[in-house]
Design brief:
2 helices; mainly alpha
Length: 82
C-alpha cells in the first residue's frame, strides 16, 4: 500500500528536491489532494456516476422535504434517494 509519505518522497525524488523544503510537506499534501479530486472527477465523468458508490443512511422529519446530506468532501453527487 502506498502512503502519503511515499508519494511525497517520490515527488521530491523526481523533482530532485530530496533534501529541500522549498515546498513544504503540507503544500505538497494540498496539491496531492487536489489532484486526487480532479482524477476522481475524470473517472466519474468517463465511466458513470456510480463508479465509486457509497451509501448514506438518514431520515426526513415528518412534514419536511429537507434532509441532511454528507459533507461535500464526502459526497461527489447523490445518485438517488429511497
Amino acid at each position: 500500500m502506498t502512503t502519503l509519505g511515499d508519494i511525497i518522497t517520490d515527488i521530491r525524488n523526481r523533482a530532485d528536491l530530496t533534501f529541500s523544503q522549498f515546498i513544504s510537506d503540507e503544500e505538497l499534501t494540498s496539491y496531492i489532494n487536489y489532484s486526487l479530486g480532479e482524477l476522481n472527477a475524470v473517472i466519474v465523468n468517463a465511466y458513470g456516476g456510480d463508479y465509486f458508490p457509497s451509501f448514506f443512511t438518514g431520515s426526513v422529519p415528518a412534514n419536511d422535504i429537507f434532509f441532511s446530506t454528507p459533507s461535500p468532501s464526502d459526497c461527489y453527487k447523490i445518485l438517488g434517494v429511497i
